[in-house]
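User: I'm preparing a small set of examples for a lab meeting where we compare how different chains pack in three dimensions. I only have the primary sequence for this one, and I'd like the structure in C-alpha cell form so I can line it up with the others. Please keep the answer compact; I'll paste it straight into my notes.
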Amino acid sequence: MQIAKTRKTQEMLMISKIKHDEGNITLKLDGKIEGMYLYELEEVCKRYLDGKKKTVTLDFSGVTFIDDGGLEVLSKLRDGRLKIIKCSPFIRTLLNDLTD
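Assistant: Understood. Below is the C-alpha cell output for the 100-residue chain.
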C-alpha cells in the first residue's frame, strides 16, 4: 500500500507500507529525503507513533540521499520506537547513532 508520493518522478520520495501488525509497521522509503518531502515523512511517522504503542521501522534500502533537514526530522522522531534498517554505507555514516 502506497502512503505518500510526491509529484516529480525523478526527485520524489515514495513511502510504502510493506508490513503492518498489531505492534509494528514497516515503511519502505524510495528516493530522496529532503526539502518539501520532509513534512510528508514526518506526518506519516507521527501518524503511527503518536498515542499508539507501535514500533515504526523505516526501510532505507531505496533511499538515495538525505539532507540535514532529513537528519533533523529523524532525530526529532526518534523515541525508541523508530528504527532505521537497510541503509547504504554512506547514509549509515550520516545517520550514525540513529540506526540500530
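A couple of notes for your slides: The longest helix spans residues 37-49. DSSP finds three helices and five strands in the chain.

User: Perfect, thanks.
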